[in-house]
Amino acid sequence: MVCFCRCIFLGGKNIVLSVSKLNMLNNRVRNSRFKSLRDKLAPANWTPGTLIILLIPFALLISFIVVKGGIIGAAGILAVVVGLPIVYGIIAYPEFGITVLVVASFMLNYVSEFLPNGTPTGILLDAITYMLIFGFFLKKKFDNSWYYFKNPISYLVLAWLAYNFLEAINPVSPSILAWVYTVRTVGFIMLMYFIFLYQIQRIEFIKFLFKLWLGLCLLAAISGFQQENFGFLSFEKTWYYSDPARVKFWFINGHWRKTAIFADPVTFSYNMVVAVTMCICFVMLKISRWKKVLMMLLIPFYILAMLYSGTRGAYVLLPAALALLAILKFNKKIVTGVVAAGFLLLIVIFMPTSNPTIKRFQSAFNPSKDASFNVRAENQRRIKPYILSHPIGGGLGSVGVWGRRFAPNSFLANFPPDSGYVRVAVEMGYIGLILFCTLMFVILKTGINNYYLIQDPELKNYCLAMILVIFVYNVGNYPQQALVQYPSNILFYMASALLSITLRLDIDKRKELADTTAKSLKD
């Protein structure tokens, strides 16, 4: 009996082993078949004949769409083939999305010069903004931390946004459509501050953004140099002459004010000043000699391009930025450099010249003799009673292009605000002006405080550069509207976010160093 049981046990064991081996063999055969099938389906192993057979249906479909839909059909195919991957990249990879936004904000107006008048190119920037916001909320679904946003600037930005949305029910506002079109670039674009604050998390990406920023400014300076010294390209000439208002305001004494790749000379000139201030700050970094030489060569080129714009309001911005630089970074070398620059400036202001560009530059420092300045001063005096009698203003979009479009017969439709601060006072009242000035003050105060708190020299210099950029835009917002045009509105809020980002990265760096030191002492 024992022998019988033993035989059964050993036989069963052998059967189990045989079945196991059989299953292993079957799996190997199955895997080898699947592997062989995968190898055959791999694109690298396709023959030309296979590729032709597979692509014929797609070619026929594309041909049919183009024949039936014409240029709209072709654009639709291009949007699917190119647009969908870009959309995915913007939503899933915020650093890529921010890069696309910055490039588009610089180049979109220049590209629009190829397109028919009235093409709503601004929708593209709106779409990029919405995709970045959507990607932000997707990421926040898996990240419940909000400490990134706990700073004074964030609270004031939210208050300003709330006030902008309350303007939608302003009883004096002549048109809700004017509010809809204006809130996109005046109010809603401020949401990008939170996107920048949350999504910019690496110092390497900050460096990349600065290189991109200065590179696009260099492209604009080259375009302005070409327009001044070699004349307009054919499509540029068509665009300049297509609007009588451009000819009226930009063709002065037989000479065109240049816009380069931007929408107007003001945006061009202000961004050239911003590029100069950034270069001055970056020269003070511990970087290679050739990079410092490059920065020092770019500074006079950007200044020359600024002069081509003929914007007198921009001429005082660089001296103002240098004065703030001397105050914040008070040392013998900086003060000496600023004094030397001031001395050169005085020579240029008072020297006799017949050059129309230099004469226009000199007139910026003697505003009482400038007819356009006196006209603006008179306009401000004339609108002052209206501002005082309307605490919440006449409604967002009640002045400027949207006011003339949606409420042409209103009192404010044809009022030229010129100044960004005057526009805020007229559209949003003295309450809005107080809130706006408080926001600007808090941004600068926070930046200056952070500058002195940051210990890392590189991050400290980046913070300083952004303080000067914000200061330049704020000073320039008095004689002109500095914060309503692309790319200035995008760059302003990116600079505001970087004030807090640099401090955050510095704190993280110090914590990492402290942890490393503690660990080494423990070991």
Q: Any overview of this molecule?
A:
This protein is mainly alpha-helical. The chain has one domain. It has 21 helices and 2 strands. Strands 1-2 form a two-stranded antiparallel ribbon. A hairpin with a 2-residue loop joins strand 1 (251-252) and strand 2. Helix 11 (265-283) packs parallel to helix 14, helix 19 packs antiparallel against helix 20 and helix 19 (420-453) packs parallel to helix 21 (488-522). Residues 1-22 have low confidence and may be disordered.
Short characterization:
The protein contains 21 helices and 2 strands. With 523 residues, the protein is mostly helical. It has one domain.
Determine the N-to-C terminus distance.
68 Å
Number of domains: 1
Strand order of the largest sheet: 1-2
Mean pLDDT: 82
Counting DSSP E segments of at least 2 residues, the number of strands comes to 2
Helical run tally: 21
Query: Largest beta sheet, briefly?
Result: 2 strands, antiparallel
The helix content is over 70%
Report the β-strand fraction as a percent range: under 5%
Q: Could you list the spans in which at least 5 consecutive residues all have pLDDT below 50?
A: 1-22
**Cα Rg:** 31 Å
Helix-strand topology string: HHHHHHHHHHEEHHHHHHHHHHH
Global morphology: globular
Which class of secondary structure composition applies to the elements? mainly alpha
